[in-house]
Structure formats: C-alpha cells, structure tokens
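Good morning N.,

You mentioned wanting to compare the apo and holo forms, so I went ahead and generated the holo version with iron/sulfur cluster. This is what I fed in:
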Amino acid sequence: MSEKKKKVGVFTFTCDEGCSIYMIEIFNKKLIEWLEKMDLEYFLSMKDRRDATEFDIAIVEGAITTERDLHEIKKVREMSKILIGMGNCTITGMPTCQRNNFTPEQTEAIKDDLEKFDFLEKCLPVKEVVHMDDEVPGCPMDEKKFIEVLEKYL
Ligand code: SF4
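and this is what came out, ligand included:
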C-alpha cells in the first residue's frame, strides 16, 4: 500500500514574497514528482481556501511584524508537525526587519503608521517566535537547499 501523502501548506508573513515566487520556479521543475508524495493544501498564491486544520509540513516565509502575524504564526505552528523557514526573513528577520536598525528619529517618523497598523515594537524573525524544525537560508532562498530540506520530510 502506498504511503499517505503529506499535507503541505505555504504561509506568507510580512515580506516581498520573493521566496514563494522563487518556489513556484522550483515547482516548475519538481512539482509533478512531489505531488506523488504531497498534497498542496494551502498556498495563497495558488489556492486561497484553507480547509485543512492540520499540516504535516508548513513552509513559511517572511518576518513577524504585526499582532496579526504573531497570532497567525503561533496558529500555524500548532497546526503543523514540521515547520520549515524559507529565506533569511524567517531566520534573521532581514531584510524585512530593517526598521529595527532605524535611529530614534527615524522610528519617531514612522510611529503613527506603526500604531495605525498594529505593528509590533520590534520586527521579529519567525525563528525567534516559534520553533522552526528546519530552514533554508538565502534571499531569495537557496534552490538546492530547499529541494534537499523539503525532500527530507516528504
Ligand atoms: S528572504 Fe528575501 S526574497 Fe525571501 S521573502 Fe525575505 S526579502 Fe523576500
């Protein structure tokens, strides 16, 4: 009997979505092969309904910048057996978290926007908020490493 397919979700937090765009490029080469082992249950760029309430693998990109991000990443962590951070934003927060390095004057200048959009005082890498089981560094992420990491869990 064939093994059960893994339920995979791709979740985007605050960023330019460069890693998920790059992932679609990788899908062009690998998705048909991977679909024998996984079902892509959620990926906003391709499918906007999230029916699944649990995932075998969550692939996450971006940094945690708002109260909403914070709530959502904790929920994704609870729903997922394995959580993979895709790209430097999830590992170090950069480049998305550049505002953490602003001078007090620069921070003061954006204070109203930070409040208006419920931004956290500090922008955080995913890794600092929840446990990541694995990570793919790079900006955008490294293709070879992404294939290696994802195939390890499929
Ligand atoms: S790591 Fe770079 S390419 Fe990936 S989401 Fe962050 S800014 Fe975009």
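The longest helix spans residues 18-34.

Happy to go through it together on a call whenever suits you.

Best,
F.
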